[in-house]
Design a protein that fits this description.
With 392 residues, the chain is of the alpha+beta class. It is built from 11 helices and 19 strands. The structure holds flavin-adenine dinucleotide. Keywords: Monooxygenase, Oxidoreductase.
């Protein structure tokens, strides 16, 4: 019987496990994959998250591998509409950190391995949870074996129990199915916009700045990455799963005039979905990260929001374990605060996506006025706070 089992060894599950292990909680992570995912996903790590990574003891390692984005600019029709500098921000991390998600995850996994050797069980998929009142049993996903094989091993009605814990955290991501399996509903918070992206060699033209091109045909975004790479993301009229790199290169050139270098990168297309769970706490089962709230990648908040769940949940769970009588109130506070943050993040992402949609004539001129006003003092400090997730 563990204190806590986390289902899902993505960035949120592993960070939470690190924070719990630091507090002396007996925690284990069950992860379906046997190999890390190398998909191009999150790159932006915001200042509040850097502080959390500091608590987990990995901020220096992340900084050593990453690029620091100290400013961002907004352009339209070849003109600069505004510029944001993050260096005026207070605190230890007056910048946004860019590091591919698979590298961040590798740093976190190495840290967890140090804190709790063998605390990560890979190749274990969890199919169902049974809250028994005083603890939760975790049932394996239906494997290719028969129920008879499982029952011979003494399972639960022929199903294999892969762990038991006083609390279970579902951190199985946006595509995870455990939230639905335990009967927690979720509702859509908008979305539907589609994008194409790829990581190109960096020509150095924009230094370490992030650049947003608000163009007639739709937004193009560009962010520096470590090792001389740069991510380019373009809004597309529809999902383009079969698009080639040449298609993305032509799209960026057509909208912005920027000629990207040729390379062997494979572009990926995605369609934005935003969802929020009806609750993040159900008895001894808790949700964290994308399992609780799926937020548009535009604005780069999803992983960061999940990490802020982790930093709120670690002390709440530690307290619930030590003071069972106060558990319900403590965990209700986690649910309230984190779903509120998710709603703010979803609204902000909705605004970011709306600003990036195709615009012409009066709409385009109005949008450019809004961008100019937002990127000029005193409103630019508000925008900087929003962009760096200071209020989540
Ligand atoms: C194109 C793109 C760009 C993005 N850019 C950014 C960005 O710049 N900044 C940002 O903050 N966010 C960004 N995001 C969002 C970010 O990738 C996610 O928010 C983040 O991965 C969520 O982490 P997680 O740990 O909650 O879930 P995941 O990363 O999805 O991890 C879930 C883990 O659970 C495992 N799992 C699933 N089901 C089971 C099961 N039944 N049993 C056991 N294990 C299971 C999975 O194998 C996986 O390893 C981006 C996303 C995309 C798609």
């Amino acid at each position: 019987m563990r204190d806590v089992i986390v289902v899902g060894g993505g960035p949120v599950g592993i960070l939470l496990a690190c924070l719990l292990a630091e507090r002396g909680v007996d925690v284990e992570v069950l992860e379906r994959r046997t190999e890390p995912s190398m998909l191009a996903r999150a790159i932006g790590i915001h200042p509040p998250s850097m502080r959390v990574l500091g608590q987990a003891g990995v901020a220096e390692e992340v900084l050593a591998r990453a690029v620091r984005i100290e400013a961002g600019s907004v352009q339209s029709g070849g003109r600069t509409l505004g510029r944001l500098s993050f260096t005026q921000m207070t605190g230890r991390f007056p910048f946004v950190v860019a590091l591919p998600q698979h590298e961040t995850e590798a740093v976190l996994r190495a840290r967890f391995e140090k804190l709790r050797p063998d605390g990560l069980r890979s190749g274990v998929g969890v199919g169902m949870l049974h809250d028994r009142g005083h603890h939760v049993d975790l049932i394996a996903e239906p494997a290719l074996e028969t129920a008879d094989d499982a029952s011979e091993r003494g399972g639960d009605n022929g199903l294999e129990i892969v762990g038991s814990a006083r609390y279970v955290v579902i951190a199985d991501g946006a595509r995870g199915q455990l939230r639905d399996a335990v009967g927690i509903a979720s509702r859509p918070l908008g979305g539907g916009d589609t994008y194409l992206m790829a990581d190109y060699p960096d020509t150095g033209e924009h230094g370490t700045e992030a650049v947003l091109f608000f163009e007639r045909g739709g937004v193009v975004e560009s962010f520096p990455l470590p090792n001389g790479r740069r991510r380019w993301v373009a809004m597309t009229p529809t999902l383009m799963p079969d698009a080639s790199l040449a298609d993305l290169t032509a799209l960026v050139h057509g909208r912005t005039g920027v000629q990207l270098p040729t390379c062997d990168a494979v572009p990926s297309s995605f369609s934005v979905r935003q969802r929020l769970a009806a609750t993040m706490v159900q008895g001894r089962v808790l949700l964290a990260g994308d399992a609780a709230h799926e937020i548009s990648p535009i604005g780069g908040q999803g992983m960061n929001l999940g990490w802020l769940d982790a930093v709120a949940l670690a002390p709440a769970l530690t307290h619930a374990l030590a003071q069972p009588i106060e558990a319900r109130v403590t965990l209700a506070g986690y649910d309230r605060r984190r779903r509120r943050s998710a709603r703010i993040a979803a609204r902000q992402a909705g605004f970011n996506m709306a600003m990036g949609r195709p615009a012409r004539g009066l709409r385009l001129r109005l949008r450019n006025v809004v961008v100019r006003v937002l990127a000029t003092p005193p409103l630019n400090s508000l925008l900087t706070r929003a962009f760096t997730m200071r209020w989540l």
